[in-house]
Design goal:
Blueprint lengths: L8 H8 L1 H7 L1 E2 L4 E2 L22 H4 L12 H10 L19 H11 L6 H16 L7 E4 L2 E7 L12 H6 L2 E3 L29 H12 L3 H13 L1 E5 L2 H23 L1 H22 E3 L17 H17 L6 H15 L11 E4 H4 L18 E4 H5 L3
Parallel strand pairs: 5-6, 6-7
Antiparallel strand pairs: 1-2, 3-4, 8-9
Helix pairs in contact: 1-2, 2-11, 8-9, 8-10, 9-10, 9-11, 10-11, 12-13
């Protein structure tokens, strides 16, 4: 358990292993790693430039350039023999709150990166819940009349309106656009001040609220894991910059862990840790993805479309092919060439060159048959779609 806003990638790697870390770095649109999508780290070298992938050896002390994970002892021995290697193994991704003021200002200028304080996130998330529940009273918290930047937690079990159940709330879709470090989704820390929030039950993020409901309504660990993963499947966010994206994914990952521990304790968590957390990492790798919110595509990439000139050139080439047929120019041969020509003009380019891919877990999985086994959370029958089709309700 990491009781800090600044999550240690070293600790994450040694606590959960390479597979979980690689899932948190996975991009399902390209089937490669997420990339930096910022020049904030370019001073570290070519491997830290805009389109360079974020790899384990760039963010931990315990992975070699070849991708082999090493122990803390092996790392210390390596640095002892080759002191210059120390610069190659360092944790450089940190939350905005602990970055220098100069870097915060520069990133705000470059990509309008501005983070929202917890009290505003709470107020806006409250509006969503008021709409969903159809009431203002008896929800997760209420405004503090003496301080608009604070709130009073509701310590009673949340009651649901007629016609809706707690399961409906848990499975209802939530999305944070241009999510940064995902302060609207999870409230491990205040994104502006960096203050860690130890009061897990009363955190105000959208996923936090779902997990509170799960904790209040499930009878045992198995039931909790099932519905907590359903909550996770229904929680989405996208972000341009790769470092923020990783921080957001890590925040959701440890939010999941911390809510389980708050409900059942660390001993029970350690018993179930590797049964549930790899599946959680997989869901997060799909549901919090890298995207330019204006193009629905990958940041910095221009969609590949044929220009008018290219289409005209293709038509001319095929007219020449018809002429070259000579005595073999039959209606059947022309029809075949026309089909080939039209196929090139209207070519279906790989989807990742135009729009990012997401996965609809809720529609794609029979929730009643899900179990604790990780294979159930890798169900290939789940619908894959582009973000464009999601927003257009296709």
């Amino acid at each position: 358990m990491i009781n800090d806003a600044d999550i240690s990638e070293n600790q994450l790697l040694h606590s959960y292993g390479e597979k979980v870390c690689m899932n948190l770095l996975k991009d399902h649109t390209t089937q490669q790693n997420i990339y930096w999508a910022t020049d904030s780290y370019a001073d570290y070298g070519e491997d830290f430039t805009f389109f360079a992938p974020i790899t384990l050896d760039k963010i931990t002390s315990y992975a070699s350039k070849e991708g082999k994970v090493i122990t803390k002892e092996q790392y210390n021995e390596l640095v002892k023999k080759n002191p210059e290697e120390k610069g190659n193994y360092q944790e450089i991704i940190r939350p905005r709150a602990v970055k220098s003021k100069e870097e915060q200002t520069q990133r705000a200028k470059d990509k309008a990166e501005v983070f929202t304080p917890a009290w505003i996130c709470n107020a806006q998330n409250n509006l969503i819940d008021e709409e969903w529940f159809g009431r203002k009273e008896g929800l997760f918290n209420s405004p503090d009349p003496e301080n608009p930047q604070k709130w009073i937690n509701n310590e009673e079990k949340i009651e649901f309106p007629e016609g809706k159940t707690w399961k409906d709330y848990v499975a209802d879709t939530r999305l944070e656009i241009t999510c940064g470090e995902a302060p609207y989704l999870c409230n491990r820390y205040d994104a502006v001040t960096g203050e860690y929030n130890e009061n897990v039950k009363y955190r105000i993020g959208m996923l936090d609220r779902k997990l509170r409901i799960v904790s209040e309504n499930t009878k045992d660990s198995k039931d909790w894991i099932l519905w907590a993963k359903i909550a996770l499947r229904a929680t989405y966010g996208f972000e341009w910059q790769g470092d923020n994206l990783l921080l957001a994914r890590e925040a959701l990952f440890f939010t999941f862990e911390e809510h389980y521990i708050a409900r059942f304790g660390e001993k029970k968590f350690n018993q179930n840790k590797m049964r549930m957390m790899p599946g959680a990492a997989y869901i997060i790798s799909w549901n919090v993805w890298q995207m330019d919110g204006l193009t629905y595509g990958l940041p910095g990439h221009t969609p590949k479309e044929l220009s008018s000139e290219e289409k005209i050139r293709i038509i001319q080439d095929f007219e020449k092919k018809k002429s070259d047929l000579g005595i073999f120019r039959t209606p059947e041969a022309e029809k075949k060439l026309d089909a080939e020509r039209d196929g090139l003009i209207h070519k279906e380019y790989p989807s990742f060159e135009r729009f990012c891919r997401i996965k609809d877990f809720i529609k794609g999985i029979n929730l009643q048959k899900s179990t604790l086994r990780n294979i159930d959370f890798h169900d290939k029958s789940a619908i894959k779609q582009t973000f464009e089709s999601l927003v257009n309700n296709e």
